[in-house]
Amino acid sequence: MKTIFSGIQPSGTLTIGNYLGAIQQFVELQNNYNCYFCIVDEHAITVPQDRLELRKNIKSLAALYIASGIDPDSSTLFIQSEVPEHTQLGWMLQSISYVGELERMTQYKDKSQGQEAISSALLTYPSLMAADILLYNTDVVPVGDDQKQHLELTRNLAQRFNNRFNDIFTVPEVRIPKVGARIMSLQEPSKKMSKSDTNQKGFISMLDEPKRIEKKIKSAVTDSEGIVKFDKKNKPGVSNLLTIYSSCTGESIADLEKKYEGKGYGDFKQGVANAVIDTLRPIQEKYEQLIQSDELDAILDQGRDKASLSAGKTIKKAKKAMGLGRK
Ligand code: AQP
């Protein structure tokens, strides 16, 4: 059975973008792959985090993974900082990463823009991400479109290590969903929807109440044309809403365009809101049960132990290949 690894940062409450771009495909894939799903808290600290908020977000993310349909008995769900091999291999991979290639990452450029003091971890984060993936002999990494460049770097680092030291890492393939790979901000449809966006109206959180979802979608930026048509270049707002609608219901974009032919944006936005609310309702109900139970800690303990077993074997081989330690 092939192996999948994917991680999500506990840098806020997940958005519908994280769900449609990442979690939804994890749920589909989990029966056919050996899956590792990681809460990458060490990535979250590449930008300042409030200690108590971070703790809360870690637990919340674990509950959201499970509430969305991840089965913790067949998949390994764990927290990155509880398996120290991640930072160990991350450091080793930093030693073969070049500053130039790290500086070329668009996420680094975006997140460092306008910052007075940029943490060095923000720059070296892709090497840690490569370590996350390579520790588990990962074959496939399912991610949203925004992570494509980091995945390319991971592949380069794996090949570089294998050529320079010993052939121990599997070079992973990236898997990007056909629809929903990049959900855009509701307020600035040229920008990716992000959970850490300071404009609350730009994203739909997976835990938003139905009324709030409706309000956010109704105030989403569209255009003055009044025609429901997919045209990313000229109608980015409407195209984004069509993508969200289609990813939530499984209806094709062409069918949705037909359904709303001759109707205004009011009807269309109500349809989008209903689709999102119906998608999130069962997840929110399950989430409420889980977040109040002790079950989560037991699941995360079990995940940590399973992940450590595999990570321990890889780090041993990687250290030996590089000549670290005594044997
Ligand atoms: N807008 C999006 N559309 C589709 N997929 C998305 N993903 C993120 N945003 C979208 C996918 O979600 C997974 C987890 O992402 P992450 O939390 O590790 O980091 P991120 O990509 O930086 O996500 P955010 O929400 O934008 O977080 P912040 O605001 O903290 O930077 C990945 O598979 C990603 O592709």
The side-by-side strand order for the widest beta sheet comes to 1-2-3
Main sheet summary: 3 strands, parallel
What is the chain-wise order of helices and strands? Answer: EHEHHEHHHHEHEHHHHH
Q: How would you classify the helix and strand content by structural class?
A: mainly alpha
Radius of gyration: 20 Å
Beta-strand content bin? 5-15%
Helix content: 40-55%
Number of helices: 13
Bound molecules: adenosine-5'-tetraphosphate
Secondary structure tally: strands: 5
Explain this structure to me?
This protein has 327 residues and is mainly α. 53% of the residues lie in helices and 7% in strands. It has 13 helices and 5 strands. It has helices spanning 16-29, 41-44, 51-67, 85-94, 99-103, 106-112, 120-134, 148-164, 210-218, 236-249, 253-259, 265-291, 295-322; strands at residues 3-8, 34-39, 76-79, 140-142, 173-175. Strands 1-2-3 form a 3-stranded parallel beta sheet. The protein has a two-stranded parallel sheet with strand order 4-5. The chain is globular. It starts with a strand and ends in a 5-residue tail after the last helix. It binds adenosine-5'-tetraphosphate. Adenosine-5'-tetraphosphate is lined by residues 7-9, 11, 15, 17-18, 21-22, 143-144, 146-147, 181-183, 192-196.
